[in-house]
Amino acid sequence: MIRCRYILLLLCVLSACSSQPPSRYSMSQDRGPDKAVDMSNIPDAVPRHETRTIAGNKNPYTVLGKTYHLLEDERGYKERGHASWYGKKFHGHNTSNGEVYDMYGMTAAHKTLPIPSYVRVTNLNNNRQVVVRVNDRGPFHGGRIIDLSYAAAYRLGFVDQGTAPVEVEIIVPGDQPPPPLRAPMGADQPPYLQVGAFGSRANAEKLRDELSGHIQAPVSISEVRTARILYRVRVGPMQSAHERESVRQQLQRGGYQSQPVH
């Protein structure tokens, strides 16, 4: 009887495990989209001043037994080495600063640049260039200096090869680095407020422009691709619970609905 109960318990556990959604760890090798997608017209990231927080900027930090120190001043940064790319295995999962990784966006992972940063990446094999926003950490494989989104690698023309020799150069808006890092809010206080989500980027940009003239807080658009493209309009990050509540009240007085998101 005990043996039968053990077998039944084991079957239940296996059944429960099989019903869980697949994680990136269930994918043995990374890959691009299942269907061919033309990403040649995806625009570069547009450099702009962004408030930096501790999110994604732990300094120093240790991975695989090696300790990394972030650059204190990224102005003048230029480096040559090899780039790689990451795609579906990480698509939809959080990056180092808590954003959702989108393999169709123009983003990148870097080991020591502050997050966020903007860099111009040149494929030294064909001289193609892209501008990407660094919002993640990595790559932690030897000989690679930057890990690009699938879209960025596609535009640089090395998706099939997997890696390529590149030059990476910082882009600092106005040659002025962002303000120093600020302490994060409490774990129970989400640093962003989402005000809308649209299937049309034009509608998202219209709301962003409206909000930018109405409140004293950063407003951004986050693009998420699942079954369809969704453009989320977010306000933040805010540096304190008091600031978040003040912004929420400003939005409410303006007739805007908002909800907290990480």
Mean pLDDT across the residues is 78
Terminal Cα separation, in Å?
A: 49 Å
CATH class of the largest domain: Mainly Beta
Q: Specify the helix fraction band.
A: 10-25%
Element-by-element helix/strand order: HEEEEEEEHEEHEEHE
Largest beta-sheet details: 6 strands, mixed, barrel
Q: How many domains make up the coordinates?
A: 2
User: Which regions contain 5 or more consecutive residues with pLDDT less than 50?
Assistant: 1-21, 182-189
Which key phrases capture this entry?
262 residues; alpha+beta; Barwin-like endoglucanases; Alpha-Beta Plaits; four-stranded antiparallel β-sheet; disordered N terminus
SSE layout:
Layout lengths: L1 H18 L41 E3 L2 E3 L9 E9 L20 E3 L7 E7 L5 E8 L7 E6 H7 L6 E9 L20 E7 L2 H12 L6 E7 L3 E7 L5 H13 L5 E3 L1
Parallel strand pairs: 3-7, 4-6
Antiparallel strand pairs: 1-2, 3-8, 4-7, 5-6, 5-8, 9-11, 9-12, 10-11
Q: What can you see in these coordinates?
A:
The N and C termini lie far apart (about 50 Å). This protein has about 260 residues and is α+β, with helices and mostly antiparallel strands. A hairpin with a 5-residue loop joins strand 5 and strand 6. The protein has 2 domains: about 60-175, Beta Barrel (Barwin-like endoglucanases), CATH 2.40.40.10; about 190-260, Sporulation related repeat (Alpha-Beta Plaits), CATH 3.30.70. The protein contains 4 helices and 12 strands. It is globular. Strands 3-7-4-6-5-8 form a 6-stranded mixed beta barrel. Strands 10-11-9-12 form a 4-stranded antiparallel beta sheet, covered by helices on one side. A two-stranded antiparallel ribbon has the order 1-2. About 20% of the residues lie in helices and about 25% in strands. It has helices spanning about 1-20, 150-155, 200-210, 240-255; strands at about 60-65, 65-70, 80-85, 105-110, 115-125, 130-135, 145-150, 165-170, 190-200, 220-225, 230-235, 260. The model is unreliable at about 1-20 and about 180-190 (pLDDT under 50).
